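Anyone have C-alpha cells for LysR family transcriptional regulator? Sequence:
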Amino acid sequence: MRPALDFNTLKVFIAVVERDSFVGASKILEMPTSNVSRCISQLEDRLNLQLIERNTRHMKLTQAGHLLYTRAKPLLEALEQTETELTLRQMQLKGPLRICIPNEIGPALLGSVVADFACQHPDLEISCVTNLSGFESLRDDLDLAIIVSRGQLDDSDYIARHLVTIPCTIVAAPSIIQRYGIPSRIQQFEELPCITTVNALKGAPWQFMNKKEGFETIKVKGHYRVNSGEMAGRAAVAGVGFAILSKQACQPYIDDGRLIEIKFEQPPAPLQLFALYSDRRYLPAKTRALIDYIQQNLSNTSLAT
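Reply: yep, here.
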C-alpha cells in the first residue's frame, strides 16, 4: 500500500515551485537547502514520478509536477485557512459557552457575576443551567461546571480549579439549646437532632477540621434531611435541630437572636466552590476568561464574617 502524501512535504514542494528554486524555498521555510532537496527527492520516490526537472542552471515542472501543484495548492490553502479559523475560535471570546451552576447558592453568589460577564462580551452565547449534579453535569456537553463541595474533593478525570472558600458554622434555635443544652464535643451530635442533606454534598456526614488540617467525620443523628441550604436554615430557625450553615447566610439570624452560634475547637469544614472542566491544555479562551472573572469577583467579595 502506497503511503499517504504528507502535508508538510507538499508545503515544501509548493514553496519550491513558487520560489522557482530550492534556495528560495529554504529561505521562506527557514530550513536548510539540503533538507528542501531531500524532501523533494523523497516525494518523487514515494510517487515514483519526476516532479521537477532540474540542472545546475534552471528547474522546470514536469507534467506530473504541474498536476500535483494545481491540485495541492488549493487544498493546502483551505487547510491553512481552517487552522487559522480554529485558532481564532479558540482565542476569541465569542460563540456558545455552556455552563452549570449549583441551583441554590449559584444564583445568589454567581448570578450577577455571570450577567456582568455576558454584558462585557456580547458576542458570547451563554447558556446557564442550575442543578446539583456536579461532575455528572460535564457529561451533558457543557463547557464548565461550578460545584460546591465540603471536605475532600473526589478524584476524577476533570480539572478542578478552586474559586472560593465559604466559612460555615453550627447553629441552633434557642428552643433547641433550652431542650438539649450547648454541646461541648462534636461527637455529641451523634445523639442530638441534626438537620442534614438528602443528596446535596453527596449526603455526606458532618465534617470538621482537625489540627492537621485534615477532616474528621461525624455520623450525626440526621432525623430531618433537606436538599437546600435555605430549607436547612428555616428548619434551624423553627427549632427542628442543629445545623451546619454558611456563616454569611445565617448571620442575620444570629444577629437577631433567632439562631445561636455554637463554636468548637474543631470548626466545621467550610464549603468550597470549584470550577470543573475537562482539559487544561485545550481550555478555550472564553471558558478561561469566565473562570478568571468569577474568581476575581468572588475574591473581592468577603464571605467571611
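The mean pLDDT is 84.
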